């Protein structure tokens, strides 16, 4: 969370803002990660803690089993006092330019030994989807995927994403866009249902169009996957309902439509697909542009 | 002397000459043909009113004089004309002049001479299949050896290039064949044993570059002047499966100069590396999985080498798409794959996905799978042992070691109903694997050979 403070400080250098930043810094250091305000406009960094980095490196360099256990125990002891700090340092260690697969496996081993749940890992690593360093972003994304517990036999698990998103919304803030984007890229259908819960949509009449569209889209994909219809078949009702949802007042519902047509360009209707590229929400616009880029060669 | 004898003498005389203008006794006017036009000239020779135009002219019985017997023989040859002679290619560049009936080889037509380019020696060289939109990466361009090229198993494999086959990166299903001939001016053609084989001058099947067959034989192949080499691209244009020959022949006649025997691929093989193992050319010999992949490619399998991250945790991704396309659009019946470390986890994920999705893919069997120190691959940070048997596999091989601090306790483990034994082999229990760790276990030749041998036994090409 140090990086949040640093970024705010950099953006708001005035004296009163500096005082505010100090207060915020204290708040950030004392509050659980999930309660910190999320700013979608800043890039994050990990402040390197050389002591912890050396502790990790020493495990790596152990030459006997006893030394390995001893060094690992030392780091785990440190982690008991500040799990977020150690998690972030592990992320940094794994993302170093010269880090190897073995280094990443070591950090995975340490995190496994820390015996922590997905909520903490997501809360710690999700903000680093906005890290300045692409390698850190990629590894943060990989850790989120790890705790989605993906499998060919079932949907991924997005339960760890709900608390940080709801926390932002409860404060009247926008959710972390990069996390939202990650969810939609992972599973757009599950993402829109998760967002519906995060936004606390409870009125059945408001919920049903979203539920119905997600259902018939998923059903068509299922029918294609298992050969009940030709792979190129598109149910006209799917296009119609996606078109209706493309005009939803909820940006996250429109974002769902944009991601569905990225994955299934033949579900799109040019009129509303083009309208999404002019959407008021930046994520929707970006996704609609990605769709357009995907279909452009075939339109020539 | 019978005409047959005359004819034989004439052939022998011309055979010795091989080329040029051999002396024909009945060709009294020396125009290289024996016909009524020679009558007047022979009459003049009998009357002594003219001089023979060649040393043997008119002396059909080879008596040294021209007399009535020669006239009788001449009339006989007009009434019972000898079979015409011409160049006869008997193999390589060897050319003799003989009749069509006597030609053991490719007879080039009446009165054709044995010139330098009449009989052409040649060679067909086929290559193993292309990948990823053309080119050979992640393999080196690999020739099919002369010893293997006409073998139905070890010879050139070819994908059925069905009309729905997906090649998102570009056409890559044609097999490169190099044609070398002894003389660029020589006229050679290709014969095919099945109409499924088509031949192109471009790998991407550019319009206007197909070499047409008239029946099962092409016209003269279009060698550039002075360039005795031509590259063509062979396509198996549609189902069903089969074996088909492509034969290099002289344009005229049916002498086989060289032959390739293509087999359609009934299987597809995937090799999945471990974390951070990326297929390379030349292959990295510390990446045993890809070493096995190269060996199988050289043995005539349709092998694809992948970074294991091309199988996502839910089994989808580039590898799954390739398998589905192969089964659904290229009539592939068998899928085999194997992986090391996270590639083992990806092997499980791919098998589970393919098994779940069978109804939408088509008929196929997973004939062979293998883990080497399989580690689950829910993510790059997954360090759990992969000990689940890949769903629906016909044969599963499993090799593992027991992790220690030196490899951060990364290891695989026993998998039920796996070979060798009943749960696979802990290589640390046998001499070759003493002191193994996670980073070494995929490189043992014993492990690689076991995978290779048992894939061969359980998966057709």
Strand tally of chain A, please? 0
Which strand-content bin applies to the residues of chain B?
A: 15-25%
Q: Tell the overall outline of chain A.
A: elongated
Q: Give start-end ranges of low-pLDDT stretches of chain A.
A: 1-35
Shape of chain B: elongated
* Major pleated sheet of chain B: 6 strands, parallel
Number of strands of chain B: 20
Please tell me how large the radius of gyration of chain B is: 33 Å
Q: What is the domain tally of chain B?
A: 3
Structural class of chain B: alpha/beta
Mean pLDDT of chain A: 87
User: What order do the SSEs of chain B take from the amino end to the carboxyl end, as H and E?
Assistant: HHHEEEEEEEEEEEEEEEHEHEHHEEEH
Q: Which fold name corresponds to the CATH topology of the largest domain in chain B? A: Rossmann fold
- Provide mean pLDDT of chain B, rounded: 91
Tally of helical runs of chain A: 16
Strand content of chain A: under 5%
Protein model, in words:
Chain A is built from 16 helices and no strands. The model of chain A is unreliable at 1-35 (pLDDT under 50). In chain A, helix 5 runs antiparallel to helix 6 and helix 11 (188-198) packs antiparallel against helix 12. Chain A is elongated, with a radius of gyration of 22 Å. Chain A folds into 3 domains: 2-35, no CATH class; 50-148, no CATH class; 175-299, no CATH class. With 300 residues, chain A is an all-alpha fold. Helices cover 68% and strands 0% of the residues of chain A. Chain B is of the alpha/beta class and 461 residues long. Chain B has 3 domains: 3-82, Type 1 dockerin domain; 122-262, Sandwich (Immunoglobulin-like), CATH 2.60.40; 267-458, 3-Layer(aba) Sandwich (Rossmann fold), CATH 3.40.50. Helices cover 20% and strands 21% of the residues of chain B. Chain B contains 8 helices and 20 strands. Chain B has helices at 3-17, 37-47, 68-79, 288-298, 318-329, 342-356, 358-361, 445-458; strands at residues 85-91, 94-99, 106-107, 122-126, 157-158, 175-181, 188-192, 197-200, 210-211, 213-214, 217-218, 229-236, 243-250, 258-264, 267-272, 303-306, 334-340, 365-372, 396-400, 425-426. Chain B has a 6-stranded parallel beta sheet, with helices on both faces. In chain B, helix 4 (288-298) packs across helix 8 (445-458). The longest helix of chain B has 15 residues, at 3-17. Chain B is elongated and about 115 Å long. Residues 1-20 of chain B have low confidence and may be disordered. Classes of the chains: A mainly alpha (300), B alpha/beta (461). Chain A binds chain B through residues 62, 64-65, 68-69, 100-102, 104-109, 111-112, 139, 142-143, 145-146, 148-153, 156, 224-227, and chain B through 274-276, 312-316, 349, 352-353, 356-357, 359-361, 378-383, 404-405, 407-410, 439.
